[in-house]
Write a structure and sequence with these properties.
30% of the residues lie in helices and 18% in strands. The chain has helices spanning 5-11, 105-113, 131-142, 144-157, 189-199, 210-217, 228-231, 241-246, 253-256, 271-278, 324-335, 365-376, 380-390, and strands at residues 60-64, 70-74, 86-90, 95-103, 123-128, 163-169, 175-181, 202-207, 288-290, 293-301, 306-310, 320-323. A 5-stranded mixed β-barrel has the order 1-2-5-3-4. Helix 5 (189-199) links the parallel strand 7 and strand 8 (202-207). Helix 4 (144-157) packs across helix 5. The termini are far apart.
């Protein structure tokens, strides 16, 4: 059954709220402006896009360019911009083409995460992109791959220890940004001269790390989801093998390394919880003394607080799992010079008898009922003979 209450409110002007903001929602529901089609890289849902007065909060707008490059601009011309609009912005020299990703109050919150170096770095938006702008933009983007291949050959001929990972042309084609990776410092002054002569554009070199390169290229992690550096992560914290030790992860480089060949950033997500939970566990060097013998630490489940002990120091023998609280009690008893009877003082619990649920769907369950009915039913000849004898 169709619900016509919403259509009645939208079609009846007398039932609409004052201020005329209801008409901005249309028939698409709330917050439809916050999630248009956009590149998956560093995508942000603008949940305040449909709030009345959100655009009047600030004239700052966040604009995204190729891959993960973003910047903030002033909407000095007061253009009615929405997320997903393609705009022409001020650049040096000329102009660039980008996509609006955030407007209004969320831009101020985003600037707290990645503040610009100086107020002069915030330039202005010229206009919404015209067909002529888009033609120049597509022509410039079509040259990027060939430029990257040729620039790698030039860097190899010059003997430079660097890898050019990506090339990004400006929207008007007057400048090209070369993203490179290098272990040390590189003197690329001669390279800039050769590139300028080869491509006839202004050259800008930007050094990035392996994590930034993975974010620009994109991909999927072993968890099955898109890379964090592609979808939302912009600030990269250092990751050490200590995070793997705190979480009892196997120190296998193939499993701990991500697409960038560095340690996975997700190892830092839960390390604080593991460190806090690990403080409640007994020391691994502590031995537990009981009347049954000496018990040695074997393994621990940090989050559940369960510790497994072995009766042999080197092999897994007579493994017994107890809670961290019980282990602390045994340690306290040992410090008093006494030994408990057993490591686990809990009474043994008999395992419940398993129930075969498959028998509930077995067709033979009807046969047992029929057999019982046949046993109860008497034969008619026997009943007649019984009546004659009685007579």
């Amino acid at each position: 059954m169709e619900d016509n209450s919403t259509n009645q409110i939208q079609n009846n002007p007398s039932t609409q709220p004052e201020g005329g903001w209801w008409s901005t929602f249309g028939d698409r529901g709330l917050s439809f402006r916050g999630c248009p089609k956009q590149s998956c890289q560093l995508n942000v849902f603008d949940y305040l896009a449909d709030v009345p007065g959100n655009m009047d909060t600030t004239d700052l707008v966040e604009v995204q360019f190729k891959n993960t490059r973003k910047a903030f601009f002033h909407n000095s011309n007061h253009l009615p911009l929405e997320k997903g609009d393609i705009v022409a912005v001020e650049a040096s020299p000329g102009h660039d083409i980008g996509t609006v990703t955030l407007t209004g109050k969320l831009v101020l919150l985003q600037m707290k995460r990645t503040p610009p170096k100086s107020p002069d770095d915030i330039r202005r938006i010229y206009r919404k992109a015209r067909p002529v702008d888009m033609e120049k933009y597509e022509e410039a983007k079509a040259r990027e791959h060939a430029t990257m291949i040729r620039s790698r050959q030039i860097a190899k001929e010059l003997g430079l220890e660097m890898k050019i990972g990506d090339v990004e042309y400006q929207g008007d084609g007057q400048k090209a940004i070369f993203y490179y990776i290098a272990d040390g410092r590189v003197d690329f002054r001669q390279l800039i001269k050769v590139l300028a002569e080869a491509f006839h554009v202004r050259i800008e070199m930007k050094q990035i790390g392996a994590r930034q390169e993975a974010g620009r290229i994109g991909g999927f992690g072993p968890c099955g989801r898109e890379l964090c550096c592609t979808t939302w992560m912009r600030n990269f914290s250092s990751v050490s093998t200590a995070a793997a030790r705190f979480q009892d992860l196997t120190l296998n480089p193939q499993k701990l390394a991500g697409q960038c060949a560095k340690l996975k950033c997700c190892m830092n997500y839960e390390v604080d919880q593991y460190v806090e939970a690990g403080r409640r566990l007994p020391s691994r060097e502590m031995q537990l003394e009981t009347l049954e013998g000496t018990w040695y630490f074997f393994k621990a489940d940090i989050l559940t607080g369960m510790v497994t002990y072995s009766s042999d120091r080197r092999t897994a023998a007579n493994l017994t799992t107890i809670s961290a609280r019980r282990a602390m009690e045994v340690i306290a008893i040992n410090k008093e010079g006494r030994k408990p009877d057993a490591l686990d003082d809990a009474a043994p619990v008999k395992p419940a008898k398993p129930v075969d649920l498959a028998t509930q769907e077995d067709l033979t369950r009807f046969d047992s009922a029929r057999k019982k009915k046949k046993k109860k039913k008497k034969h008619p000849n026997n009943s007649a003979q019984g009546e004659e004898v009685a007579s």
